[in-house]
């Protein structure tokens, strides 16, 4: 069959899975007074439509920031404004100031879900298709298989179409950035990434790799001459993009400052709820939050994050190739997730996107990580009533990615790039690392399946009410840490050899 | 180079698992009153003694399938009690707790295993071409996708809610057994199917004549005509024994209780109207349309008095008997005669020149389609009885593939009005697109070249226009209030053209094969 028909079938399947998930409940459904992320998005439509731009981020009588105040950069606000215009045309009650608080109806749910789908179809899905067709190697069948698995990644589907968010927009813009950089269009790539950054500030997790890659490329081209011109071009693109996005707020510096204060709240603690990162897991053994003061917590997490992200960034700076760039994206996002301040469990999606880019090259580890990332959000998904979509999409992803990408067949030591481990662990007897990796994968999947079943079926003992979320986040954390180390080691090993690439085809 | 991982038979497991997981995603989608129908039957068979099953009418949805299906529901109800006991209380009308929905939806997905097994058997019977071929272009792969991922089955079974996959599993398995020359097994399966849902009586003539001609008469003369002396009474006896014993198992308890007339009256209710609330795209839809057009013309040209015309309510969505205004009225016996007349040539053809199991399949197809075209109170879902067996022929012959594309696209599109809720609109559109893209691309690759004649392509393109008009333009237009059934009418009439055309072409292909052999 021709590639275009296979590609359209994959895209259509991706759409039908997304819409099938969207039939389920959303975050905060029927839970007054605060509801959840769904109500937050609806509220932002209300605020941006009815109030002037200057008041969006300020606490006024009309705009109570305690009730889901805007805490994303301006592009999210503009997106909400566009959606609000459409909402007003269909049913003005949906965005009426103050009176539409907590508005819930089947028609409104359909509208909101449709906005997510439209945004995905315009931004995220085309980026995925173009990436898989033009920046992955292999036969066309392999590219289509990668595309299908990429689109089937459960974490993003469950959060965007279940819990309700617009991660597809920010991740989509970031993906356009990666795509453009891969094709050599650096200015366009930086513009796309700036748009992503101005949509959700969490994209800062990806900022260092973009910076180091472009800077490294400029240096390689020669600091005087072409490199310098490229640097100027990129810098001016970034400045212009930022200026355009922040235009309404630049007239008054205090406004801009207020926006910054809203999107970077430093008054909160080291972590909230149960999240699969170092601090939350460490907290089980040592109660860090009580030992350290709030300021030292910030310093500690900043120091650890910088330390964790430094090796990968420096390596990328010295060797700015696309392969290094992809790995650095994964490493940077993981470093920030594991060590940063006020991390939410949904932030794992920022690490999942770069790992999706590696589905083609390192299938087994990528599939494992992507499954773990979905699993780490299980407590959140259970709270939203998304058990059935979680089970279905995870099973589908596990099975189809293993089957189509032949992950379990293509896992010799060379393909998994485990050579470096041998050098590091030279003191240990000669082990079959590929076999160990495969067994770790099986055990990991079994553990995740077991914990998922247990979280649903059993009731935790009364003196340990948070037992299952803690177990889930700790298991996920250990697997994330292992993956972080692995990707760092792979980034420092040699580039993929031509021989292994030919074998993968 | 072989695609990674797509070797051996693992692709079949992948397809089956994929479609089963997709079905699970539709659990919370809209379901029709058929959901309550089956819940009621679970309750009736579980809570009441057998003697009351066909007399019970607390709910309006009385038991109107043959007894074997009632036993099937009885078996299901034993599993249902572990999900939610309250669904088994007869008085709990329209009870639809989350556990009930979960159980019922999962039961459809599980019973589809019969269908999956049947599809695997059918794929084994397909004639493969020699030489290594990419899995995606193998006829068995294409057939598996066309059957497992059939749009009609997904929409009707897993959204609208029915057990058609389970029933079609028996039909396709029976066909597969005949294709493998295991006639007794095929007959047994068909007997079971008849006792599960009696609508399959429509294709019984094909079975009857084929088995009589090709199984009971063990040999033919050299020119293909009947060798009367090769009649084997033993075989006839075996067939009879199978059919009688299955019917006895199913109806036995009710005959013993003297309830046979009651059961039959439940199974064959003829008080309903010529057409369903929404007209199935068959001959009578065109007939009704013609009648309306003539009536309107007659009034305009002053040939008829408007007061003389009966009140128009055939499109009013009521399931009643109705009189036509200009053309003669149609009664159930007329439709029966029309149906019998229309299947006569097909059945006679396989009597005179049996072409083995594939000729039988073609005849079965024609019986199914003829009964769809001319039957009384036909539901548009019945077009699936013709579409699914045609898939087997479509992957083997170019001409059949062309007919298949026309019949399937129009038949599937005619199912659109079944799912009318806005939330499910993207699902049905996307699934339809999926099926259309795959069937066109895969069959074109198999057949090496374009399969459709220009006029057919234009007709199918017109379907898109009708779809956009009915789904998007009409709800936003001012006629929505005055003529709410206009999109149903338009869909039904437009699709009738396509279905009738496919019917005629299929008939032509059967009779042409007949003629060729006789030369």
UniProtKB/TrEMBL annotation, chain A:
Q: What is this protein called?
A: Alpha-1,3-glucosyltransferase
Q: Which domain of life is it from?
A: Eukaryota
Cellular component annotations (GO), alphabetically ordered: endoplasmic reticulum membrane
**Where found, per UniProt?**
Endoplasmic reticulum membrane
* Primary localization class, coarse: endoplasmic reticulum
Topology relative to the membrane:
Multi-pass membrane protein
Q: Write out the pathway annotation from the protein's UniProt entry.
A: Protein modification; protein glycosylation
InterPro entries referenced in this protein's UniProt entry, alphabetically: Glyco_trans_ALG6/ALG8
- Record organism: Dicentrarchus labrax (European seabass)
Provide the function of this protein: Dolichyl pyrophosphate Man9GlcNAc2 alpha-1,3-glucosyltransferase that operates in the biosynthetic pathway of dolichol-linked oligosaccharides, the glycan precursors employed in protein asparagine (N)-glycosylation. The assembly of dolichol-linked oligosaccharides begins on the cytosolic side of the endoplasmic reticulum membrane and finishes in its lumen. The sequential addition of sugars to dolichol pyrophosphate produces dolichol-linked oligosaccharides containing fourteen sugars, including two GlcNAcs, nine mannoses and three glucoses.
The keyword Membrane appears for this protein:
yes
Q: Which reaction does it catalyse?
A: an alpha-D-Man-(1->2)-alpha-D-Man-(1->2)-alpha-D-Man-(1->3)-[alpha-D-Man-(1->2)-alpha-D-Man-(1->3)-[alpha-D-Man-(1->2)-alpha-D-Man-(1->6)]-alpha-D-Man-(1->6)]-beta-D-Man-(1->4)-beta-D-GlcNAc-(1->4)-alpha-D-GlcNAc-diphospho-di-trans,poly-cis-dolichol + a di-trans,poly-cis-dolichyl beta-D-glucosyl phosphate = an alpha-D-Glc-(1->3)-alpha-D-Man-(1->2)-alpha-D-Man-(1->2)-alpha-D-Man-(1->3)-[alpha-D-Man-(1->2)-alpha-D-Man-(1->3)-[alpha-D-Man-(1->2)-alpha-D-Man-(1->6)]-alpha-D-Man-(1->6)]-beta-D-Man-(1->4)-beta-D-GlcNAc-(1->4)-alpha-D-GlcNAc-diphospho-di-trans,poly-cis-dolichol + a di-trans,poly-cis-dolichyl phosphate + H(+)
The encoding gene is: alg6
Please name the top-level EC class of this enzyme: transferase
Looking up Pfam families in the UniProt record yields:
Alg6_Alg8
UniProtKB/TrEMBL annotation, chain B:
What cellular-component terms does GO give this entry? Answer: endoplasmic reticulum membrane
Q: Does the keyword Transmembrane helix apply?
A: yes
UniProt keyword annotation of Methyltransferase present: no
Give an example GO molecular function.
Answer: dolichyl pyrophosphate Glc1Man9GlcNAc2 alpha-1,3-glucosyltransferase activity
Instruction: Name the residues that span the membrane.
Output: 135-155, 186-212, 232-256, 330-348, 360-379, 425-446, 458-479, 485-508
Keyword annotations: Endoplasmic reticulum, Glycosyltransferase, Membrane, Transferase, Transmembrane, Transmembrane helix
Q: EC number(s) on record?
A: 2.4.1.-
Q: How does it sit in the membrane?
A: Multi-pass membrane protein
Write the protein's name. Answer: Alpha-1,3-glucosyltransferase
């Amino acid at each position: 069959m021709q590639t275009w028909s296979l590609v359209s079938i994959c895209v259509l399947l991706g759409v039908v899975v997304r819409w099938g998930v969207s039939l389920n409940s959303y975050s905060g459904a029927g839970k007054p007074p605060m509801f959840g992320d769904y109500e937050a998005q609806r509220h932002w439509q209300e605020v941006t439509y009815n109030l002037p731009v200057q008041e969006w981020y300020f606490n006024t009588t009309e705009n109570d920031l305690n009730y889901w105040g805007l805490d994303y950069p301006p592009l999210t606000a503009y997106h909400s404004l566009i959606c609000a215009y459409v909402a007003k045309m269909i049913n003005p009650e949906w965005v009426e100031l103050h009176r539409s608080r907590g508005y819930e109806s089947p028609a409104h749910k359909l509208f909101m879900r449709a906005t997510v789908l439209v945004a995905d179809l315009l931004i995220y899905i085309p980026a995925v298709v173009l990436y898989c067709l033009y920046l992955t190697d292999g036969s066309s069948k392999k590219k289509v298989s990668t595309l299908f698995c990429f689109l089937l990644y459960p974490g993003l589907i469950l959060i965007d179409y279940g819990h309700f968010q617009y991660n597809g927009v920010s991740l989509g813009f970031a993906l356009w950035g990666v795509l453009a950089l891969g094709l050599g269009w650096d200015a366009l790539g930086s513009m796309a990434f700036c748009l992503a950054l101005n949509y959700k500030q969490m994209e800062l997790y990806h900022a260092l790799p973009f910076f180091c890659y472009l800077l490294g490329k400029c240096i390689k081209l020669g600091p005087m001459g072409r490199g310098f011109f490229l640097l100027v071009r990129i810098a001016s693109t970034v400045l212009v993009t930022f200026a355009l996005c922040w235009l309404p707020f630049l007239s008054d510096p205090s406004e801009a400052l207020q926006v910054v204060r809203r999107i970077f709240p430093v008054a909160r603690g080291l972590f909230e709820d149960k999240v699969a990162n170092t601090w939350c897991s460490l907290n089980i053994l040592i109660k860090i939050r009580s030992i350290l003061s709030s300021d030292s917590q910030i310093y500690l997490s900043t120091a650890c994050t910088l330390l964790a992200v430094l090796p990968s960034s420096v390596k990328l700076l010295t060797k700015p190739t696309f392969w290094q760039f992809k790995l650095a994206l994964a490493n940077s996002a993981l470093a920030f997730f594991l060590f940063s301040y006020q991390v939410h469990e949904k932030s794992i999606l920022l690490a999942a996107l770069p790992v999706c880019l590696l589905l083609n090259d390192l299938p087994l580890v990528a599939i494992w990580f992507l499954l773990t990332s979905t699993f780490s959000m299980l407590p959140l998904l259970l709270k939203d009533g998304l058990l059935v979509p979680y089970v279905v999409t995870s099973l589908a992803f596990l099975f189809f990615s293993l089957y189509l990408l032949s992950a379990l067949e293509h896992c010799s030591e060379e393909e998994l790039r485990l050579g470096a481990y041998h050098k590091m662990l030279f003191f240990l007897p000669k082990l079959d690392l590929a076999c160990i990796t495969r067994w770790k994968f099986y055990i990991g999947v079994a553990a995740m399946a077991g914990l998922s079943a247990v979280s649903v079926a059993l009731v935790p003992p009364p003196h340990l009410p948070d037992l299952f979320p803690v177990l889930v986040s700790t298991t996920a954390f250990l697997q994330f840490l292992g993956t972080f180390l692995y990707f760092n080691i792979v980034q420092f090993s040699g580039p993929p050899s031509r021989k292994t690439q030919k074998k993968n085809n | 180079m072989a695609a990674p991982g797509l070797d051996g038979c693992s692709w079949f497991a992948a397809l089956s698992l994929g479609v089963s997981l997709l079905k699970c995603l539709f659990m919370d989608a809209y379901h029709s009153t058929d959901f309550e129908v089956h819940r009621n039957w679970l309750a009736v068979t579980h809570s009441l003694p057998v003697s009351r099953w066909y007399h019970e009418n607390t709910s309006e949805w009385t038991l109107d399938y043959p007894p074997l299906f009632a036993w099937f529901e009885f078996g299901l109800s034993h599993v249902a009690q572990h999900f939610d006991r309250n669904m088994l209380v007869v008085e709990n009308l329209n009870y639809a707790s989350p556990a009930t929905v979960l159980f019922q939806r999962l039961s459809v997905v599980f019973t589809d295993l019969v269908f999956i097994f049947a599809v695997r058997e059918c794929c084994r019977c397909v004639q493969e071409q020699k030489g290594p071929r990419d899995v995606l272009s193998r006829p068995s792969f294409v057939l598996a996708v066309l059957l497992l991922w059939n749009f009609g089955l997904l929409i009707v079974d897993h959204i609208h809610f029915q057990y058609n996959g389970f029933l079609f599993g028996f039909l396709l398995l029976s066909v597969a057994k005949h294709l493998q020359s295991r006639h007794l097994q095929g007959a047994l399966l068909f007997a079971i199917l008849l006792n599960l849902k009696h609508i399959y009586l429509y294709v019984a003539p094909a079975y009857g004549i084929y088995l009589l001609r090709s199984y009971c008469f063990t040999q033919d003369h050299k020119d293909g005509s009947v060798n009367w002396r090769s009649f084997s009474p033993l075989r006839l006896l075996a067939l009879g024994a199978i059919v009688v014993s299955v019917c006895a198992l199913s109806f036995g308890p009710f005959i013993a209780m003297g309830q046979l007339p009651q059961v039959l009256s439940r199974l064959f209710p003829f008080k309903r109207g010529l057409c369903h609330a929404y007209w199935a795209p068959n001959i009578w839809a065109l007939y009704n349309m013609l009648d309306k057009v003539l009536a309107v013309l007659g009034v305009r040209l002053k040939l008829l008095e408007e007061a003389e015309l009966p009140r128009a309510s055939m499109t009013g969505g009521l399931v009643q008997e109705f009189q036509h205004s200009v053309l003669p009225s149609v009664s159930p016996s007329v439709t029966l005669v029309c149906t019998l007349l229309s299947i006569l040539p097909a059945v006679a053809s396989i009597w005179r020149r049996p072409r083995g199991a594939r000729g039988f399949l073609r005849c079965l197809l024609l019986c199914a389609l003829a009964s769809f075209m001319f039957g009384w109170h036909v539901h548009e879902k019945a077009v699936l009885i013709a579409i699914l067996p045609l898939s087997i022929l479509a992957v083997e012959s170019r001409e059949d593939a062309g007919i298949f594309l026309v019949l399937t696209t129009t038949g599937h599109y005619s199912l659109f009005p079944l799912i009318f809720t806005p939330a499910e609109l993207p699902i049905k559109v996307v699934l339809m697109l999926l099926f259309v893209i795959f069937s066109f691309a895969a069959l074109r690759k198999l057949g090496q070249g374009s399969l459709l004649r220009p006029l057919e392509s234009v007709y199918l393109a017109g379907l898109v226009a009708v779809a956009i008009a009915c789904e998007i333009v009409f709800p936003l237009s001012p006629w929505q209030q005055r003529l709410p059934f206009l999109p149903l009418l338009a869909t039904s009439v437009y699709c009738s053209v396509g279905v009738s055309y496919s019917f005629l072409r299929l008939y032509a292909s059967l009779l042409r094969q007949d003629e060729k052999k006789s030369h």
